[in-house]
Write a structure and sequence with these properties.
The structure holds two protein chains of two kinds.
Chain A (H helix, E strand, L loop, with lengths): L3 E4 L2 E5 L4 E7 L6 E7 L6 E7 L4 E4 L2 E6 L4 E6 L8 E9 L2 E4 L3 E6 L1
Parallel strand pairs in A: 2-11
Antiparallel strand pairs in A: 1-3, 3-8, 4-5, 4-9, 6-7, 7-8, 9-10, 9-11
Chain B lengths: L2 E5 L2 E4 L5 E8 L5 E7 L6 E8 L2 E4 L5 E7 L2 E6 L8 E8 L6 E3 L3 E5 L1
Parallel strand pairs in B: 2-11
Antiparallel strand pairs in B: 1-3, 3-8, 4-5, 4-9, 5-6, 7-8, 9-10, 9-11
Classes of the chains: A mainly beta, B mainly beta.
Chain lengths: ~110, ~110
């Protein structure tokens, strides 16, 4: 079955700097890769996603890149703000098979 | 739009008591539905998923069970809760392949 690894597990950056979180997956059949943000005590919320026919997608300060050959994808957050502090989860999906990474706790220091 | 409703938001139960958590779904019919558990500061552990009425797949053997009596209703149950059942329980729905899962607000369960 699918296995998703995520690094780093914790990440601290200064406000205004960029943050990068990387995920790798094992099943080449996976073709949908969403990213979720979970604030403390809240539900995970989708922030951006990418499908396998696209190599990069951007939405304001957030971008995701996908390398299907290497089976890894990354989340890039530019000009980080304190409200970006949260736990971020990547996921890899094929059909109803949805596997989440273990999460990255991002802290943006003012 | 697709909306996931969960209740209650918080629940405190004694060890050995039964449990019933309900998840209902608004929006397009025939969603895939999921139950996850999240321990404090940890990731999402998939417990059950359902692709249709009466169809339940279990990912982790435990004293929990799930049922889907209606297309838009997904229930998580236990006959006897253990201390290790404490956690944040999230219901999620997904409508078709290559689509995101949408989460409910979750139930924080504490076992005393």
């Amino acid at each position: 079955g699918e296995n998703v690894e995520q690094h780093p597990s914790t990440l601290s950056v200064q406000e205004g700097d960029s943050a990068v979180i990387k995920c790798t997956y094992s099943d080449s059949a996976s073709n949908y890769f969403p990213w979720y943000k979970q604030e403390l005590g809240k539900r995970p919320q989708l922030i951006i996603d990418i499908r396998s026919n696209v190599g990069e997608k951007k939405d304001q300060r957030i971008a995701v890149t996908l390398n299907k050959t290497a089976k890894h994808f990354s989340l890039h957050i530019t000009e980080t703000q304190p409200e970006d502090s949260a736990v971020y989860f990547c996921a890899a999906s094929y059909g109803q098979n949805f596997v989440f990474g273990p999460g990255t706790r991002l802290s943006v220091l003012p | 739009s697709q909306t996931i409703h969960q209740w209650p938001a918080t629940l405190v139960q004694p060890v050995g008591s039964p449990l019933s958590l309900e998840c209902t779904v608004e929006g397009t019919s025939n969603p895939n539905l999921y139950w996850y558990r999240q321990a404090a500061g940890r990731g999402l552990q998939l417990l059950f998923y359902s692709v249709g009425i009466g169809q339940i797949s279990s990912e982790v053997p435990q004293n929990l069970s799930a049922s889907r009596p209606q297309d838009r209703q997904f229930i998580l149950s236990s006959k006897k809760l253990l201390l290790s059942d404490s956690g944040f329980y999230l219901c999620a729905g997904e409508w078709g392949g290559n689509q995101p899962q949408h989460f409910g607000d979750g139930t924080r369960l504490s076992i005393l």
